Amino acid sequence: MANRMTVHRDGKAIYDIVLEPSYDRLGKEVGGLLTGRRKICIVTDSNVAPLYEAQVRAQLEPQCSQVDVFVFPAGEEHKNLDTVRQLYGFLIQRRYDRGDLLAALGGGVVGDLCGFAAATYLRGIRFIQIPTTLLSQVDSSIGGKTGVDLDAYKNMVGAFHMPSLVYTCTSTLLTLSDEQFASGMGEIVKHGLIKDRDYYEWLLAHGEEIQARDLAVCEEMILVSNRIKRDVVELDPTEQGDRALLNFGHTLGHAIEKLMDFTLLHGQCVALGCAAAAFLSARRGNLTMDEAEGVKAALARFGLPVSIAGMGLSIPEVIATTKSDKKMDSGVIKFILLSRIGQAYVDRTVTAEEMEESLVWLMGGQDER
User: Fold this and answer.
1) Mean pLDDT of all residues in 259-272
2) Which of 113, 186, 189, 314 is most buried (most C-beta within 10 Å)?
3) 278-288 per-position pLDDT tens digit
4) Of the candidates 153, 159, 148, which has an alpha carbon nearest to the alpha carbon of residue 82?
5) What does pTM read for this prediction?
6) How much is the average pLDDT of 92-104?
7) Residue 85's CB: how many other CB atoms inside 10 A?
8) How far is CA 207 from CA 170, 193, 274, in A?
9) How far apart are CA 163 and CA 79, in angstroms?
10) What is the DSSP letter of 138?
11) Which DSSP state fits 268?
């Protein structure tokens, strides 16, 4: 029996998250969403298509009248309005209407772009998430945040548009590079830090099995992270309150990601931001410095970067870049800090000087200008 949980909004069930070791039940899950013979467009990228497009297509073809596949070049640099425009044209030419379905097959870039297209094509059609990276399985596929980048500004154009299904095939973890797997761990460690100290400690206790990609252990891990994100999203579906806590590590992380021109993966940048936020939490007296160092060590254990030394980053430039982040609120940075391990809060008083201290800490104590 699949591991399954339901996401609700205003007390009403809106979609299920299903974890399976293969794609064998995907057709049945999608068939339950369709009324009549509809068209389905698989949206994927040039990395994922050779691996999984044929398996997914074989599951979907018996369920619908037509399966199309839209493939765009892999990479964050293609998560933009130009690619969305190409997808719109593809759908128009094939006469997709509001009763048809899009299927996002891939990582966060694919899911964000496909979801945004679904939210805006014909003022909204349904879509499903079929996440293939650890990061997308525990984060971007859940919660309905969609979007694309505008020039160098990450996710500045977007919409809230909930999927109709999230189907996670855990065996896709075995095809990920070490860097991609580690990137997902950045968000997973974050979940423990902001919401569940026991989970954070469980991750450390099961570090060897996780790093070995023991699928039974990884499935349990994904399930807990899904529950954490599901619970936050149900309380705050459009990020008016508690959902902002999921941005722990993202203020400085997004700035670093942009300045590195997306050469670092999202989860790697989030890890750097989490380490810096742990330091700031210790500076405020919420954590001990030993706990902040422990957060840094935990992230490093899962193969994540915890130092920006040698990256060529300018501390003043990183701080300036935080001010162009979409999470600004009336010109004030909403910084997420920890009151203790497992509990986070929104703080609007973090100063440029404090951010500078945290970045110097990430430099190994050397103030690089």
Assistant:
1) 93
2) 186
3) 999 999 999 99
4) 148
5) 0.93
6) 97
7) 11
8) 18, 16, 18
9) 19
10) I
11) H
